[in-house]
Design goal:
Blueprint: H1 2-29, E1 35-37, E2 39-41, E3 48-57, E4 62-70, E5 76-86, E6 92-104, E7 109-113, E8 127-137, E9 140-145, H2 147-156, E10 164-169
Parallel strand pairs: 2-8
Antiparallel strand pairs: 1-3, 3-4, 4-7, 5-6, 5-8, 8-9, 9-10
Length: about 180
């Protein structure tokens, strides 16, 4: 009886060890993700929030991938964002400032990958940060006032600087038949 128990323990030990080594080999052969994580500086007064952000690497450039949520009753048709690097001295260096068009229905969510290439060289010790500066619907435009100052304060670790958002009517993209104020 003791011999059978010892044999079962030995077989179990061999099985567990073999399984662990095979998993280790498989995990070591998995290619590393080519995505770079992007930190998001949320502007709470904007109707659009970024839940996840990353730069997807291709052979020639990076593409920005965002998970967005619309918290307004209006359809969102575009945004302007700033992407910057923050070095080990907490200094922000701009990478790009772009306007992108898309469509997210009222109170909707969407994962988007913008096809405008971003070219830059990432360095060790730097982190990427993204800030929405403008959100556009057919009826309104939300603009972050002094966005650059707020982003630089965030990079320095000063989280007390809260960006101010100004909402104005969109007189360019207003739906047909809507009254225009001149």
């Amino acid at each position: 009886m003791l011999r059978k128990f010892g044999l079962l323990v030995l077989i179990g030990f061999v099985f567990v060890t073999t399984e662990a080594f095979s998993r280790l080999r498989v995990e070591n052969n998995v290619p590393q993700s080519r995505d770079l994580p992007v930190e998001v500086f949320q502007v709470l007064d904007l109707p659009l929030s970024v839940h996840e952000a990353s730069l997807v690497k291709t052979d020639k450039a990076y593409f920005l991938k965002l998970s967005l949520g619309n918290s307004s009753e209006l359809k969102i048709i575009g945004l302007r964002y700033s992407l910057a690097t923050i070095d080990s001295k907490n200094q922000a260096q701009p990478v790009v400032n772009r306007i992108e068009g898309f469509s997210i229905p009222a109170y909707g969510n969407k994962i988007l990958t913008f096809k405008t290439p971003i070219k830059f060289k990432s360095r060790d010790g730097e982190r990427l940060v993204l800030m929405l500066e403008q959100v556009i619907s057919r009826e309104s435009i939300w603009e972050v006032v002094k966005a650059k100052d707020a982003l630089e304060a965030y990079a320095r670790g000063d989280y007390s600087v809260m960006p101010v958002v100004l909402r104005v009517p969109n007189q360019v993209d207003a739906p047909p038949g809507a009254p225009r104020i001149f």
